[in-house]
Amino acid sequence: MQKLNWLSSKENSEVRDITSRFWKTLSPKAYPITKGSMRVPISLEPFILSKNEYADLQKGILLVISAARKLAEHYFDDVELRAVFSLHPTETDLIDASKDESFVGPIRADLFYAKKPKIVELNTDFPDGLFLHDITAKCILDILPSTYHSPSNATLFQELLETEGVSKDEHIFVGYDAGRKFIDEFALTQTQLKQAGWKNVSYGPLEELAYRDGALYFNTERIEVIRRGVETAKLRSNTELLSQLITAQSDSGLKIINNFKMRLLGHKALLAALWDRRFERYLTTEEVEAVRNIIPETLKLETTSIETVRAHKDDWVLKPSDLAEGKGVVIGSASTEEEWSAHLTDALRNPQGWLVQRKVVIPKETFSIFDTDTDKIHVAEMSYDLDPHIVLFRDHAEMGNMLVRFSPSEILNVMRGGGLTYAFVEN
User: In 3-state terms, the chain is what percent helix, strand and coil (to 5)?
Assistant: First the structure.
């Protein structure tokens, strides 16, 4: 995977013009609410994968997802596997109530691609920006000097709705958490689905739904399908709403895309379960090999030799099994011995809620961003990751758009500073 440094030879004035045209095109298309006033830095120099690199990446990711689905299904009948997850008490009942649901919906694999890819996390609860990333990637593709390929998230999502039997007349509600400031993605979902022929699509806070007679309503209209746009952890304190969602699924046939069972696939403890030899009996030989090759060694803290981890801090990353957006992550190599020891001591107060993951090589690259406000190009070496979107159907999965995030920190999260671009495939 190589970065396409196509702007480096151009004069500042030309880069300014290209960047200005890009934002002028992107803002009305991708930001229907904010019109581009809330901008994340975007690099117009994407990464390129060869056809062989992409084929190998796709094969490895889909094998890991197949393995993850199998273990997540056995969560319900394997006591030892259930113990590995150590779910939040509120989530246990919620997921048990979703036992008969299928794993369907968009997810994202977060990985570092140095010499070979290493998946460090699966985001299956709510990988945001599904349609926004499609449009942004397309706007970058349109200005590149050569032609490349990028799979479409929107096309896959529409295929998913069709295979799930969602008719063009059903009311689809795109629901997010109250208080969320950036809601362009949800308005964009409405626009894109309406353009694809779904006649009744609305969006708003899940907290504003009304419940009566076993069904949920938004603005007096009954909802048949919910596209969930919020992480389970942000909803679990609202037990009344969660109860209504579960009841509506059973009583009125409500469909939820990214249902609550999907939480199992994205729980960090699942990566530890995939590395646990007790559960290899559920997997094929090819799936086990893929797990070992593409997921770094991941262990529950309670099963780890603490003294070994304490003594070899540069080899490990400490992670809470139940948080997202990089919260609580401690990189041993970025900590002093005293800091690392203190973090481990704190985590040992609740060892079931923590895991350690062998540190992988985090690639770095020089990124250039033209700031249209200052009329200057900012150049800096940044860490970056690769985050392919994948859409899960009932019996298979397909790769979508590939996001790239970059940051001055080794903890990659756009919400915590940094920027983004994309990875495309050779035609």
Answer: 40, 25, 35
Residue in the structure block whose two tokens are 């990659």: 412
As a whole number of angstroms, the distance between CA 97 and CA 147 comes to: 47
| Residue 194 confidence (pLDDT) | 97
Query: In sequence order, which residues have a C-beta less than 8 Å from that of residue 275 and are 6 or more positions away?
Result: 291, 292, 295, 297, 298, 299
Q: Which residue has the tokens 């060694």?
A: 297
Cα(164)–Cα(62) distance, rounded to whole angstroms? 21
CB 42 within 8 A of CB 378: no
Nearest-angstrom CA–CA distance, 348 and 342: 10
Regions in the chain scoring below 50 on pLDDT: none
Q: CB within 8 A of 360, min separation 6: which ones?
A: 112, 114, 118, 120, 296
If you classify domain 297-358 with CATH, what class do you get? alpha beta
Which pLDDT score is estimated for 408? 87
| This model's pTM is above 0.90 | yes
Tokens of 129: 């920006």
- Give 269-302 pLDDT, tens digit per residue: 999 999 999 999 999 999 999 999 999 999 999 8
Task: Give domain limits for the chain.
Answer: 2-267+363-426, 297-358
Query: Is the Cβ–Cβ distance between 196 and 189 less than 8 Å?
Result: no
